[in-house]
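Technical appendix A lists one of the benchmark inputs used to test multi-chain prediction within the project. The record comprises two sequence entries:
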Amino acid sequence: MDILFFGKLGDRIGREIRIEPPPGGCTVRELRALLASLYPAAEADLTSPSLRACVGDEIVAEDFHVGAGRSVEFFPPLSGG
Amino acid sequence: MIDARLTDLPLDPAVEMSRFMGKLGEEGAVVSFAGVARPRTRDGAEVERIFLDHHPRLTQRSIDEIARAATQRFAVSAITATHRFGAVLPGETIVFVAAASIHRRAAFEAADYVMDRLKTEAVFWKREDSVDGSRWIEPTDADRAGRARWSE
């Protein structure tokens, strides 16, 4: 499963990583926990409610089920202008 | 006319304004705004650069949607919004917005609305690199309050 990070998390972890998801995929909530175990230094950011997950260019909820072959992007709070 | 663009090149407000006004017809009001990278952080440290991370598809989609919404909400005939991404040096323009209308009120409001939404909803992540280190910027309470004004 490909995971992309933007903003602060992109700096901390890298833009793109590939992980081995549980067989059959997992929910976004489970994915966050898995990532936090892989990157404990970024746990606070990975589990923050202000971090949103995006699949197929749409923001998805915590219970969204991500198939093993999908890509997931994580968005910290936005700030433009 | 709706024109929302991203660029990683220096942005000259005078050139943008001239380009915008060259496309207008019988409007009697044009309002413009330029957001400029500040030379100091809120703590007074010297800023070396602003870095704007962006998304390969959703950033353009977000500024398109914000500009389109402004034309639907206010009686403006034209909107332009150009936003930098990548590295921006202090003193350089980060964002330029202009709106045109028959009478001035709609143009003022549309430009204000576009900026409030760009600050909080456009798909960018802004990092301030200063002599004291780097800090990722998040919308302030004032930014959120600015956005909330348009939800009433």
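The helical segments of chain B are 13-21, 58-73, 104-121, 141-148. The interface with chain A takes residues 35, 52-53, 55, 57-58, 61, 83, 94-95, 115, 118-127, 134, 136-139, 143 of chain B (CB under 8 Å). Comparable benchmark entries are summarised in Table A2.
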